[in-house]
């Protein structure tokens, strides 16, 4: 099956600074993939490379089996500002979409606008933030792409508008069999809609894989204070914290943990993301290379 996004040794440099470095990942088709990381981690750079807006400095990237930008009809892009034209009406946006996109699905666009209750004669400048975001999403979906890329599309929305946007995104992805790459700072949003995860930190991929498998292979261990270097070799320490008497570790392992000294707890997606985003703790057993999980 063709990957929605495949990168090998991908990097982008601005002057002397690497905005993205040594990025190797595979995002399978048909997934809603969440891209998360701190500011400056390289998220927008990766999305811009995937959309064909930037060229790599090193390495390669393919989207839906081809070079980014070679067939713009296959990729839809919704930027963080959910750009629409304030002076144009909703209907004007749909007409513009039809002119610019050979594969435009007018019926899909019209039906979605009706379901959203948007007045086609209303100018975009008079829409709420949530309505503008929904209009931008409609434009992205109605071009019938194979991959839809969204860069922080709900960052400025209130919780209700954010939930409605994400609900619409999930419905569209299921109905039209879209692959989606969604960047967000809000882990709760990713938890709601994503089945694949990419965590970027310091311009590098720290972990990527199927959400269910990542959660199944990461555990929180709590027990008497211990040097993480004494753990079995197959227990990779992601983060560690210690008190005088107790250690709390987040580890990744594919095998059961039988040591009775540990209390083993489940981790949430937020626990996992924050652990990889945090600075390494005082342990010599923290995984530093990017980790990938494959089915």
Automatic annotation (TrEMBL):
<dbReference type="InterPro" id="IPR003439">
    <property type="entry name" value="ABC_transporter-like_ATP-bd"/>
</dbReference>
<dbReference type="GO" id="GO:0005524">
    <property type="term" value="F:ATP binding"/>
</dbReference>
<dbReference type="GO" id="GO:0016887">
    <property type="term" value="F:ATP hydrolysis activity"/>
</dbReference>
<keyword id="KW-0067">ATP-binding</keyword>
<feature type="domain" description="ABC transporter">
    <location>
        <begin position="5"/>
        <end position="227"/>
    </location>
</feature>
<keyword id="KW-0547">Nucleotide-binding</keyword>
<dbReference type="InterPro" id="IPR051782">
    <property type="entry name" value="ABC_Transporter_VariousFunc"/>
</dbReference>
<dbReference type="InterPro" id="IPR027417">
    <property type="entry name" value="P-loop_NTPase"/>
</dbReference>
<dbReference type="InterPro" id="IPR003593">
    <property type="entry name" value="AAA+_ATPase"/>
</dbReference>
<dbReference type="Pfam" id="PF00005">
    <property type="entry name" value="ABC_tran"/>
</dbReference>
<keyword id="KW-0813">Transport</keyword>
<protein>
    <submittedName>
        <fullName>ABC transporter ATP-binding protein</fullName>
    </submittedName>
</protein>
């Amino acid at each position: 099956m063709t990957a929605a996004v495949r990168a090998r040794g991908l990097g982008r440099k601005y002057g002397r600074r690497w905005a993205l470095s040594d990025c190797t990942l595979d995002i399978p088709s048909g997934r809603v993939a969440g891209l998360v990381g701190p500011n400056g981690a390289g998220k927008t750079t990766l999305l811009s490379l995937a959309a064909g807006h930037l060229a790599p400095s090193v390495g390669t990237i393919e989207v839906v089996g081809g070079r980014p930008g070679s067939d713009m009809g296959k990729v839809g892009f919704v930027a963080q500002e959910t750009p629409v034209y304030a002076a144009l009406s909703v209907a004007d946006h749909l007409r513009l979409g039809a002119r610019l996109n050979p594969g435009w699905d007018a019926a899909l666009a019209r039906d979605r606008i009706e379901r959203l209750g948007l007045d086609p004669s209303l100018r975009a400048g008079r829409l709420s933030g949530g309505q503008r975001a929904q209009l931008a999403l409609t434009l992205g979906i109605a071009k019938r792409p194979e991959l839809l890329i969204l860069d922080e599309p709900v960052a400025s929305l209130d919780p209700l508008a954010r939930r409605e946007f994400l609900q619409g995104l999930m419905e569209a992805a299921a109905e039209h069999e879209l692959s989606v790459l969604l960047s967000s700072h809000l882990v709760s949003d990713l938890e709601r809609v994503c089945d694949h995860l990419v965590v970027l930190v310091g311009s590098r991929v720290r972990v990527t894989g199927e959400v269910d498998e990542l959660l199944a292979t990461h555990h929180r261990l709590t027990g008497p204070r211990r040097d993480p270097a004494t753990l079995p070799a197959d227990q990779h320490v992601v983060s560690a914290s210690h008190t005088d008497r107790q250690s709390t570790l987040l580890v990744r392992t594919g095998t059961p943990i039988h040591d009775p000294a540990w209390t083993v707890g489940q981790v949430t997606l937020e626990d996992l993301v924050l652990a990889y985003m945090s600075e390494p703790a005082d342990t010599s057993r923290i995984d530093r290379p990017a980790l990938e999980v494959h089915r």
